[in-house]
Specification:
Elements: H1 2-19, H2 24-40, H3 42-47, H4 55-84, E1 94-99, H5 105-117, E2 121-126, E3 132-137, H6 143-161
Antiparallel strand pairs: 1-3, 2-3
Length: about 160
């Protein structure tokens, strides 16, 4: 995948030099057209093992994961803020077991950190077999809704980011 990026940079620089204009505008035009060519010839590139997917699609998936995290972070911030300004602090804290579909250590670590960084939730422990997380939620009435929320946002996006599927 890094070779795709280097090819794209190199040909973008060549485009800039062959056009005779040495500025970023011409570099980005060449860079864009090489991205298009890489997309068109991706099947040939994958036969020669130059990556399993295009690097800019991989970068898009990481960006999508970051945006999902930021949106969930904002929603959780608003919920905790509402909770703080309630007249009576009536919360229902709970610790629940979350079954993981992700397998790799970096994925589990990323998911656990994303849960912990989101206000109102905390990853308490990882199961001994790396198949479960124990999550503390500050206020919930529906554990299944919390589990589905994690599965459909964070875990789904982390699975998309993985290069090897």
């Amino acid at each position: 995948m890094a070779i795709q990026f280097l090819i794209n940079i190199f040909i973008g620089i060549l485009w800039m030099f062959f056009s005779g204009n040495y500025n970023l505008e011409y570099f980005f035009v060449g860079y864009f057209w090489v991205m298009v060519v890489l997309f068109i010839f991706r099947k040939i590139l994958f036969k020669f093992s130059i990556g399993k997917q295009l690097y800019y699609i991989y970068a898009y998936k990481w960006l999508k994961l970051i945006v999902i995290f930021l949106v969930e972070l904002l929603k959780a911030d608003i919920n905790v803020l509402k909770m703080m300004f309630r007249k009576d602090l009536d919360v229902n804290p709970v610790i629940f077991e979350y079954k993981l579909t992700i397998k790799k250590n970096w994925q589990i670590t990323l998911l656990a950190n994303m849960i912990t960084l989101t206000p109102g939730t905390l990853t308490v422990n990882v199961g001994y077999n790396n198949k479960t997380l124990f999550v503390h939620c500050l206020d919930t009435d529906n554990i299944e809704e919390e589990i589905e929320g994690i599965k459909n946002s964070f875990e789904k996006a982390i699975l998309e980011v993985d290069l090897n599927g």
